[in-house]
Amino acid sequence: MEQQHSGTEFFIDGNGVADLGLIATPGAHELTALIDSHLVRWANRKGLNKETFIIPSECPRFSSGDGKGVIKDTVRGDDLYFVVDVGNYSCKYRLFGSENSMSPDDHYQDLKRLIQAASGKAHRITVIMPLLYGSRQHRRTYRESLDCAYALQELQSMGVTNIITFDAHDPRVSNAVPLMGMDNVMPTYQVMKAMFKHIPDFKPTPDSFMVISPDEGAINRNMYYASVLGVNLGMFYKRRDYSRVVNGRNPIVAHEYLGESVEGKDVFIADDIISSGESMLDIGYELKKRGAKRIFCNATYAIFTAGLAEFDKAYADGIISGVFGTNLTYRTPDLLSREWFHEVDVSKYIAYFVAAINHDMSVSNIIDPHAKIEALLQRYGVK
């Protein structure tokens, strides 16, 4: 079995501790609909005759730019789950006649507006925020703001009891709210499943496959992949110029490699985010110089802030063989149309979380995917 749960066991006695409700903030409707489809299917298998768990809402704006949150149904006594995608820049609003893209700040503000609209009447509030607001600024070096830590404290003060996030840039940010639940989840199993589906002749064995960490910050996630697959691990570290700051960071001078030879082997590189993609491509070119066979990149959030042209060229030149990214944040139609991009659907994973929390059940088996990965490897004859 690929999953440890069928989903139906979560709906044995109705709707759990309270009626379950999903509320999608602007820009998160696609992901919320996918989560809802799983929950509805499981509920109806138990004869609950549900059409949807989604509670209609909106965040209209005045022409001056002021906004408000509106929930269009009762939520009194409900177990509410707010879904927000702070990275969805495709959402637009008009300000004094000009069209503006919503920033992470705008999405976070809309989340707070909808929580306010619940007016304290909900039984419990959980926020599903896969891309954690402000999380890239995760530590203070000089006189700098710590937006993520402060936002978590603000949500706690508004009555949020739990936050579900994925692959936080620095999970230690949960120390800001030690009395509030915070689940930092890794979509490892979903990525492995997508790789077996999309990569021809994919056999992650020690003699033909290696995992490479793109930097020291990503070592833990890559170490996990290497451990569960039983393959070797290598690592790059970034040599930076600390005398300058470019685009908010110290520029990278070179990528230095530590590890055994990658010659003739397929290589897998995992990181939390592909922003401009410059670092990932630099590592791809370095690995090709060292004789790597196929190079597969993975990022939980593949946002490509500098566009797709450089990745198109790297794919055409045979530098990279594929990029795997989740549907946890906005992907452009251009990205989804690329032959080299493979989407990893994580909606079912989130649905398990929602159902388990709604029934006050343990999420330990859901968080730890080791048994499911072992079953996946056995299914494809790897172990």
Automatic annotation (TrEMBL):
Its EC number is 2.7.6.1. InterPro entries: Pribosyltran_N, PRTase-like, PRTase_dom, Rib-P_diPkinase. The keyword Nucleotide-binding applies. GO terms for biological process: 5-phosphoribose 1-diphosphate biosynthetic process; purine nucleotide biosynthetic process. It holds the Pfam family Pribosyltran. Residues 27-159 form the Ribose-phosphate pyrophosphokinase N-terminal domain. Residues 191-297 form the Phosphoribosyltransferase domain. SUPFAM superfamilies: PRTase-like. Belongs to the ribose-phosphate pyrophosphokinase family. This is ribose-phosphate diphosphokinase. It comes from Candidatus Allofournierella pullicola.
